[in-house]
Amino acid sequence: MAISLLGLWGSKAQAEEEKGGAKRILPGIFIESISLEGKTAGEAKAEVERYVSEVLSKKVISLLSIDGNKIDITPAEIGLRWSNTEIAEEAAGIGQTGNVVARYKAAKDLQYENKVFHMEFEVDREQIRQILEQQCAVFNVEARDATLSRVDGSFVINEGQTGKVVDVEASTQLIYDYFNSDWNEGEGGSIELIVSVDEPKGTREELGKVKDILGTFTTSYRTSGSARSANVANGCALINGTTLYPGDEFSTCKAITPFTSENGYYMAASYLNGQVVDSLGGGICQVSTTLYNAVLLSELDVTERHNHSMIVTYVDPSADAAIAESSGKDFKFINNTQAPLYIEGVTTDDKHITFTIYGVETRDSGHQVRYESEVVSTTYPDTEVIHVNESLPLGSVSVQSAHIGYKANLWKIVTENGKEVSREQINSSSYKVTPRTATVGVATSDPNAYNQIMAAIATNSIDHVKNVAAALAAGEVPPPTVLPADPAAGQPIEGGAVPADPGAAAAPPEAGAPVSPPQEPAAAVSPEEAPAE
Q1: H or E stretch covering 133
Q2: Which residues contact 402 (CB under 8 A, 6 or more apart)?
């Protein structure tokens, strides 16, 4: 009787298969909660795909971020797709292979226990990452180190702030894994994102120890114009109040740039390619130079320093520190002490700039340090250069001073209880020699005057050209033009001194003259490297 029933079942199943033209999935077979009974493999796959797109993709998943904040997303926003689609074919194959006994047994088993296939999913990592970066970034809290400030001559401690930032890479992986293992696709869900905590530097105890002056240095800019003076004061203010922790590196350029009017800078004289030009931030190198000398006296580690292309007058040769944003010149140093440092920058009404570095003094009371500038060689300009400008009116003469060339070394001398114990070369600097130059206007409708100014230019004497130009502009008879003998190469011009035009470089002090303590410079009007160089 059992054999007869089995035969009848087999004949019936075969007839249904032949009638439908394709194998139909037996009752009791599911993908998740979706019954596949009577469907072909293709129909089953389409049904599940429709369930994914119309139901699962619209579920709401909450991403729990920082301090109770959250964002809601749908699986569709991160590219949800059903990945193990082959289970539709497996479902269709149950009870469809083997002899009639095996097929009958498979069908009977389904009457007692359903066969349920489980779905697997894929999501797009890049879409997850973009959502986290774009939508969760607003909840990030950046760490803020504790800092010092000075009010009425006393230090004030400003508490820091713990940083909290969504770890984008770790959270991306977390979300990806969630949809492959933990997601109950019948419901929404929530995922607590991974947050990195960044503790701030500085405690009240360690900042409270910062009281000692490690080094201080002052330069003067008394003869600077209003624009240059404003640039020096602005750069000083941008550095003032810096707290630097042990091991941290200070970048002057990072602290004071960009050189824009919005950042408080004005057009003033600068060095650029051996010429004096106006640029935003002109004069800023006096700020970096003054700070450099305070750093040297504090005996901090200097990691980057450049000399100017031409000599400056507010410090001795080799005691300068030039910066230039576009050419990558910077002045940097590291806090190599075991305590925080505080940098105070001050400018005064009588145009002096002072940097003072505070910390915890660990050097013996008998320990003293000073720096000496040694001029190794001096090169004087041996010619003058005159540029003709056809667009400027006759009588116009613009002069740029000559600059003496120098090679110089800076020495660090350490004494203990008044006795010299070490002498170390700190740097070596070379400064370009540049001739005195003039730009002369020759535009005129008077051919005779034109010939006279051109004859004066041919002498290559700027002073003679100035005299002739002045006379012609005043309608007077110009002085006669006589071709002078060339000065001996390498000899001082004009009695051995560079002309005292604005921006001229004063002669340096004798070798061995101390850089510290600072002395009033002869003139503080020399421009520096152009910030935009």
Answers
A1: helix 125-135
A2: 381, 384, 433, 434, 435, 436, 493, 498, 499, 504
Question: E strands along 26-109, which residues?
Answer: 29-31, 34-35, 61-64, 70-73, 81-82
- Enter the pTM of the model: 0.73
Instruction: Give me the residue spans of the domains in the chain.
Output: 2-59+76-132, 209-529
Phi and psi (nearest 5°) for 351?
Answer: 65, 60
Q: What burial letters (b/e) apply to 203-224, b meaning 16+ CB within 10 Å?
A: eeebbeebeeebbbbbbbbebb
CB 331 within 8 A of CB 252: yes
Query: At 50, is the secondary structure helix, strand, or coil?
Result: helix
Sheet strands (E) in 317-396: 332-334, 341-347, 352-359, 367-379, 384-393
Greatest Cα pair distance, the chain, in angstroms, is 144
Q: How far apart are the first and last CA of the chain?
A: 104
Specify the 3-state DSSP secondary structure of 223: coil
pLDDT in tens, 44-67: 999 999 999 999 999 999 999 999
**CB-based burial label for 149 (10 Å; 0-12, 13-18, 19+):** middle
Alpha-carbon span 366 to 200, nearest angstrom: 36
Is residue 88 within 8 A of residue 43, CB to CB? The reply is: no
Taking only the tens place, the pLDDT of each residue in 318-369 is 999 999 988 899 999 999 999 999 999 999 999 999 999 999 999 999 999 9
Tell me how far apart the alpha carbons of residues 280 and 143 are, in angstroms, rounded to a whole number.
Answer: 33
Instruction: Give the H/E segment covering residue 116.
Output: strand 115-117
Cis ω before 258 (30° cut-off from 0): yes
Structural contact between residues 94 and 29, judged by C-beta atoms closer than 8 angstroms: yes
